[in-house]
Write a structure and sequence with these properties.
single chain; alpha/beta; GMP Synthetase, Chain A, domain 3; Beta-Lactamase; 7-stranded mixed sheet; 6-stranded antiparallel sheet; 23 helices; globular
Length: about 575
């Protein structure tokens, strides 16, 4: 770095929030080669807006915001996508006598000179916040666009991949293996975006890639004509998952372990044959840094006390209910971890083992060799366990063995796929479980859902129409009408949400409820009794989260079942943004 640039950097740092010249000099000395602007932003010691403003004043260039949706895509061809990704310089407008180029780093002299050489018109420069610029590049060009261009130029899309390396290090991109690099980029981006699932879906004339983030599917921007890579992408993923790449007519399942970004990821892979070709889905499970404790569940004090009392039982059955992906496994792991000790032998049988708990014996279901929940559970009981966890009760055989285990002094945990807590009772009765056995051994049914939490970077206060809140059963008198909501920003993909939290419905099997179970009463009567006995519904617990400012009314309504007393359809009201002083 030249002395002139060094002096300029010190002045810029002082203008951007660094407290003293000594601190600015220390920060400057710690910079490595390459983009020092990026390193300064990464340090977290400057305010980005002030930093960009100072750079803009230095170069006499404006700082602007850009919206990828408003950029004419015909301008994208002005610069090669590989150049755009490498130098993070984006053409945003083609004028009659010039081209407007956006960047966050005007000190990238190499990139600026190359851009001038590539353009047929003079360049007008603007500064854009880094996250906003990078998001716009991904949105406009699609993930891996630079690799895609390279593949098309070298015609590598049609290479046979049977002998391809099965490396699963996401950071070990082989520059010669462009398809491998492209697939790694798709997976890496999913991990960065906190996706739990990746879906690669062939359509009639296109190949669609979607990520499931915070429970919602988002379509991923990909390069045009990605369909030409369909066979190569699917084959690469099947190689990584140790599948038969020659078999395209039958569904297959596979697994892989990935390493990258200081993370270890377990991936379950599934293919299905469709009329447009094989569709492949990946479920991502992070193996590192998972903490399973009550703090993670974020229960209310009342809920935590109820559950701790349940876990103190020496025997009985505790059942969690809800759809796939609602966090039941995480809750079970937290329960098991809280009672895990050298005095207790805990054995689980799961499909699959999602996370490993130290000190717990965990078994993976393997239907192909007849290791089912029922068979595994039968053998577990010969292993002298204190606590048993069964991934799911799917049939009467598994239910009978679980009940027998509870009756012989074991504490049993399991799950059911039902819409609410009381639905667990009717589900077991429908399986022909004897009512007197169900009433005597099951301690509790706990339903749960995951609601998206408000993005902390774009939170705002909004006022909801009183009539709408009354219509959806919201306790307006107790909680009011003004609440937090996310306005949408680059950090949350303009959704207003980032992360998820659980809401619960805990149905204790009390004496009045036992009597109704013995009489095989219908679900409506059972639910009324449970509420009379103190059960809070999922929606009521959701309102608690709204009052805490953790989620929104719309999100609670989305994930909870409509109460029977409400109209089947309720028009969603648009809240009004409140004054900032609120």
């Amino acid at each position: 770095m030249s002395s002139a640039v060094s002096q300029s950097l010190l002045n810029l740092l002082l203008e951007s929030g660094v407290q003293s010249r000594e601190e600015a000099a220390e920060l400057a000395l710690n910079l490595n080669g390459g983009s020092w602007v990026g390193q300064v932003l990464d340090s977290g010691r400057v305010d980005e807006q002030r930093f960009l403003g100072a750079i803009g004043n230095f170069f006499r260039v404006p700082v602007v915001s850009i919206d990828a949706k408003k950029i004419d895509r015909t301008t994208l061809s002005i610069l090669p996508s590989r150049f755009v990704f490498q130098h993070q310089i984006l053409p945003i407008e083609a004028k009659e006598n010039s081209v407007v180029l956006a960047t966050y780093d005007l000190f990238n002299s190499v990139g600026r000179q190359l851009a001038s050489q590539l353009l047929k018109k003079p360049a007008e420069w603007v500064l854009v916040p880094r996250a906003q610029l990078l998001r716009a590049i991904k949105t406009l060009y699609g993930i891996g666009a630079e690799t895609f261009d390279e593949i098309l130029k070298t015609n590598r899309a049609f290479e046979v991949l049977q002998d391809a390396e099965t490396s699963t290090d996401l950071n070990a991109d082989d520059p010669e293996a462009s398809v491998v690099k492209f697939v790694n980029q798709i997976i890496r981006e999913a991990i960065i975006e906190r996706a739990t699932d990746i879906h690669v879906e062939p359509l009639e004339n296109d190949l669609r890639i979607r990520y499931r983030i915070d429970g919602i599917l988002h379509e991923v921007a990909v390069p045009p004509q990605l369909r030409v890579l369909q066979a190569a992408i699917i084959s690469r993923l099947k190689v990584m998952a140790h599948m038969d790449i020659a078999e395209r007519r039958l569904p297959q399942d596979g697994r892989m372990n990935l390493h990258g970004n200081n993370q270890e990821i377990d991936v379950r892979v599934s293919t299905i044959p469709t009329v447009n070709g094989e569709s492949i889905s990946l479920r991502l499970l992070s193996r590192g840094g998972q903490q399973f404790n009550f703090d993670r569940l974020d229960l209310s004090k009342k809920q935590e006390q109820v559950i701790r009392n349940l876990l103190a039982h020496a025997n009985g059955i505790i059942l969690l209910t809800g759809p796939t992906g609602c966090g039941k496994s995480t809750s079970l792991y937290c329960f098991l971890s809280s009672i895990n000790s050298v005095q207790r032998r805990i054995i689980t049988i799961e499909e699959p083992v999602e996370y490993r708990i130290p000190g717990v014996s965990q078994i993976d279901v393997k239907p192909e060799i007849d290791l089912t929940f029922a068979k595994g559970l039968r053998h577990i009981l010969r292993q002298d366990p204190n606590v048993v966890m069964v991934g799911e009760i799917r049939d009467i055989e598994t239910a009978d063995i679980a009940i027998r285990a509870a009756m012989t002094g074991h504490l049993v945990f399991s799950t059911l796929h039902t819409n609410d807590a009381v639905g667990g009772i009717t589900r077991l009765l429908d399986m022909d479980v004897e009512p007197f056995l169900l009433a005597s051994v099951v301690k509790s049914f706990i339903a749960q859902r995951l609601v998206r939490t408000i993005c902390p970077d774009c939170v705002q206060w909004v006022d909801y129409p009183h009539e709408y809140l009354v219509e959806i059963g919201f306790p307006v008198k107790e909680l009011g009408t003004r609440f937090r909501r996310g306005g949408g920003c680059d950090q949350c993909r303009q959704t207003g949400y980032q992360g998820r939290a659980a809401i619960y419905e805990i149905c204790l099997v009390t004496e009045p409820l036992r009597k109704l179970i013995m009489q095989k009463r219908d679900g409506g009567e059972l639910k009324q009794c449970a509420i009379a006995e103190g059960m809070e519904t999922l929606r009521q617990d959701g309102w608690r989260r709204v009052a805490q400012g953790k989620t929104t009314i719309e999100e609670v309504v989305r994930v909870t079942q409509t109460d029977e007393v409400m109209a089947e359809t309720t028009e969603e009201a648009e809240p009004v943004v409140a004054a900032k002083s609120a």
